[in-house]
């Protein structure tokens, strides 16, 4: 029987994921609030990838869109006692992919699809899918 402590490295990965989203939230709100005529909760519809305000907003929103599924999958994996090595591997894969995705989105203003950040989005998605598959295999 696995102990709760078997997943300590995965918990640290969850911490990194949450801390990354918190950083994105602070950056997004900070750059948006610094704009002339900023209205809380609204972003100028004329903005695009050339604007850091747009990229910071989209980076945060993309994380918000992906976070519930991944966190749910992580906790399901722990609840069904999936292999801690693979849980940790997939959690850290997702965490690192999201950090690289964020860095590329902040740094590269492009309308091109796929952009370099797209590859890291797919890596994070693949980690989530693989972890969900691991959960299915661990279900009784």
Can you describe what's shown?
Helices cover 72% and strands 0% of the residues. It is an all-alpha fold and 140 residues long. α1 (8-33) runs antiparallel to α2 and α1 packs parallel to α3. The two termini are 14 Å apart.
Q: What's the structural blueprint in terms of helices and strands?
A:
Elements: H1 8-33, H2 52-79, H3 84-107, H4 116-138
Helix pairs in contact: 1-2, 1-3, 2-3, 2-4, 3-4
Note the main sheet: none
Per the principal axes of the C-alpha atoms, what is the gross shape?
elongated
| Count of DSSP H/I helices | 4
How much strand?
Answer: under 5%
The span between the termini is: 14 Å
| Class derived from helix and strand content | mainly alpha
What is the string of SSEs from the N terminus onward? HHHH
Radius of gyration: 17 Å
Please tell me the overall pLDDT.
93
Helix content: over 70%
- Segments where pLDDT lies below 50 for 5+ residues? none
Give the number of DSSP strands.
0
Overview features:
single chain; elongated; 140 residues; 0% strand; mainly alpha
Summed up, what is this model?
This protein has helices at about 10-35, 50-80, 85-105, 115-140. The protein has about 140 residues and is mainly alpha-helical. Helix 2 (about 50-80) packs antiparallel against helix 3.
